[in-house]
Design goal:
Elements (H helix, E strand, L loop, with lengths): L4 H17 L2 E6 L5 H13 L2 E5 L2 H11 L12 E6 L3 H14 L4 E7 L2 E3 L1 H8 L4 H41 L1
Length: 173
């Protein structure tokens, strides 16, 4: 079904607006994804505040060219959908990557992050970053580690001093 020129212009304007507002856009090749799994994916993404749009590749390429991104555009193969996230870029990448593992029919083929094109490996790297809470826990551990070491050394010195003083006291008795 072909779109009218006016409808294409509306879609193009909508895409451009979403691309400018989004912190991350992930390109998804959903070829072979059935309706049930497609609805499941849309629901998952909606719950985390990610907008998921199926678009024609020509319109997507035009919109991407209009906003002038750095780098090389990934090869947009297969049927294309764009996942726009205006919030946390990592959680959207994690959700899509987890869904892609469960459903081998979809592939993450790249995206846009920080006004640059990213490839699928970068999307997977983002998806494998630990959660904020885990990273904060590691940071606290790293900050606390030298202090714990110092306390252990100082505690060892006092134990040794007490031990030496105790041995001297036993020899005198």
């Amino acid at each position: 079904m072909s779109l009218t020129k006016q409808k294409k212009q509306e879609i193009l304007k909508d895409l451009e607006t979403n691309l400018k507002k989004a912190k991350i856009v992930i390109f998804v090749n959903f070829h072979g994804l059935n309706v049930v799994n497609s609805n499941k994916l849309r629901k998952l993404l909606r719950e985390i505040g990610v907008r998921y749009l199926v678009v024609k590749k020509t319109l997507a390429k035009k919109a991407l060219e209009m906003i002038g991104l750095k780098g090389e555009m990934p090869n947009l193969e297969g049927e294309l959908a764009l996942a726009f996230s205006e919030q946390d870029p990592i959680i959207s990448a994690k959700t899509l990557e987890k869904f892609a593992k469960e459903n081998k029919t979809i592939k993450l083929i790249g995206g846009v992050w920080d006004n640059k094109y990213i490839n699928s490996e970068t999307v997977l790297t983002l998806a494998n970053i630990p959660s904020r809470e885990i990273l904060l826990g590691k940071l606290v551990y790293i900050i606390n580690s030298p202090i714990q070491g110092l306390v252990g050394v100082l505690n060892g010195i006092t134990k040794n001093l007490v031990s030496v003083l105790n041995q001297i006291h036993e020899r005198k008795i």
